[in-house]
Design brief:
The structure holds two protein chains of two kinds. By secondary structure, chain A is mostly beta strands. Chain A is built from no helices and eleven strands. The N and C termini of chain A lie far apart (about 40 Å). Chain B contains no helices and eleven strands. In chain B, the strands form two sheets. In chain B, strands 2, 4, 5, 6, 9, 10 and 11 form a seven-stranded mixed beta sheet that branches. Chain B has a four-stranded antiparallel beta sheet with strand order 1-3-8-7, with no helix packed on it. In chain B, strand 7 and strand 8 form a beta hairpin. Chain B starts with a strand and ends with a strand. The chains are: A mainly beta, B mainly beta.
Chain lengths: ~110, ~120
């Protein structure tokens, strides 16, 4: 049972435009969400996070939106740059004693020059 | 910043042998470390949660006798793949949790190839 889903395996956008990566979750107990960027054969790099008590968090070119009623979050990157090309994973956690992260399947973003 | 060092970055071993992967938090103490496995073009699958000084908690379907986890100190966790088989070939990634926002720091991963 996939608790965190990224239904788009890939996304291609033009440089300078907005990239929107989507993520859905099923576990209503998740209360903290994170986005990671990953290159092949490397570990994920943290981008931005959001607590379930918020609906938006912004950090530079990256903004994460959370819609709790729809169990949906999205990452907006604007303007997109070629260096943003990578695989993006959303992850969710329940702040119980385990603090474990559950990852989605990832979306490969290609930003075309 | 928080840095996690994972070693080795890649290893090739023969079937039936054991391989140890180390995960170190270099500049912070990590009471909890996590071990993930990633197959090509797939998600990071959590294998186990490692707590310093106690037994690891394994996810469903992960064989604890095959994937031995030791978290002997607040800065070191090890994953030993015992009696490795070709199907154990994968990319293994560790993560250490620091009690801050976005406080999960990942190692650079280990590419294990069993021949």
């Amino acid at each position: 049972d996939q608790q965190v889903k990224q239904n788009s395996p890939s996304l291609s956008v033009q440089e300078g435009r907005i990239s929107i990566l989507n993520c859905d979750y099923t576990n209503s107990m998740f209360d903290y969400f994170l986005w990671y960027k990953k290159y092949p054969a490397e570990g994920p790099t943290f981008l931005i996070s959001i607590s379930s008590i918020k609906d938006k968090n912004e950090d530079g070119r990256f903004t994460v939106f959370l819609n709790k009623s729809a169990k949906h979050l999205s990452l907006h990157i604007v303007p997109s740059q070629p260096g943003d090309s990578a695989v993006y994973f959303c992850a969710a956690s329940v702040r119980d004693s385990s603090y474990k992260l559950i990852f989605g399947s990832g979306t490969r973003l290609l930003v075309r020059p | 910043g928080a840095v996690v060092s994972q070693h080795p970055s890649r290893v090739i071993c023969k079937s039936g042998t054991s391989v140890k992967i180390e995960c170190r938090s270099l500049d912070f103490q990590a009471t909890t470390m996590f071990w993930y496995r990633q197959f090509p073009k797939q998600s990071l699958m959590l294998m186990a949660t490692s707590n310093e000084g106690s037994k690891a908690t394994y996810e469903q379907g992960v064989e604890k006798d095959k994937f031995l986890i030791n978290h002997a100190s607040l800065t070191l966790s090890t994953l030993t793949v015992t009696s490795a088989h070709p199907e154990d070939s994968s990319f293994y990634i560790c993560s250490a949790r620091k009690a801050t926002v976005g406080g999960y720091t990942f190692g650079s991963g280990t590419r294990l190839t069993v021949v």
